[in-house]
Amino acid sequence: MTEIASPNQAAGKRPGPIVMVTAGGENPWIMINALAGRFSDVTVIEEQPESKGLFLRRRARKLGWPMALGQLATMIASRFGKRFTRSRAEEIFATYKVSGKLDSSIPIKSVASINDADAIKQIRALKPGVIFLISCRLLKAETLAAIPCPVLNFHAGINPTYRGLMGGYWALVNDDAENFGATVHLVDAGVDTGGVLYQSRQRPSQSDTMHTYPLLQTAASTDIAIAAVTDALDGKLRPVDVAGPSRQWFHPPIWAWVWNGLTRRIW
Questions:
Q1: What is the span of the domain harbouring residue 239?
Q2: Domains contained in the chain, number
Q3: Residue-wise pLDDT tens digits, 172-204
Q4: Where are the alpha helices (DSSP H) in 139-195?
Q5: What is the arrangement of strands in the sheet containing 42-47, beginning at the earlier edge strand?
Q6: Residue 188 burial by Cβ neighbours in a 10 Å radius (0-12, 13-18, 19+)
Q7: Which of 24, 38, 157, 236 is the most buried (most CB within 10 A)?
Q8: What is the pTM of this model?
């Protein structure tokens, strides 16, 4: 699969306005800080994280209760392992010269959900030239239809082969390390099915785990996010055709995660 190169970044800040939507977290702050460092008018709309109960019920409807509970167990176990990956996380921050702490000068507006009427009202009032999503709820079709500008998304995976969750992890599990990477794409009504704009690829280290894979993918991909936002503001968005199978992935259930970790050192 051919790498999609990003254009050269222009020096200095340029005008927005840009609205970034997220449920918060260290990885999104990396991207938000990077865009705010390049563009002069960035506002964050931060939605409340989805409850674990709602997540579990929705996942059970789609995959069944055994799989949903197995995936939840993996999420809980990997969260406890976060403390053991801190040194690797700091190494990633230093390597890519990024910060996971939000710049306090960036304005933040809080909403319950990006799909609420209040969120749409706030977005319209800001009159953005582009909306950039990172780690937030899936936009409903009616929400997307109500937004009068391009909507982009950062996905920690190579589309269309690794749509959904844990794209880097699944690339390694599938012996497909050359497709460990990230995608910036247009948003449509599907799950990471919108037109691909830019992609980047990374090579994880032996010390990376499910916790640091997305951190690495995000920190190494700020340039393609800046490129895509620049294209959107200039009215020059050009989706590209990317070959490959299309599949949506989820968290691995606890039994698969432990097995891959013990037998293949893929945590």
A1: 18-264
A2: 1
A3: 999 999 999 999 999 999 999 999 999 999 999
A4: 141-146, 167-173
A5: 108-111, 42-47, 18-22, 130-133, 151-155, 181-186, 196-201
A6: middle
A7: 157
A8: 0.92
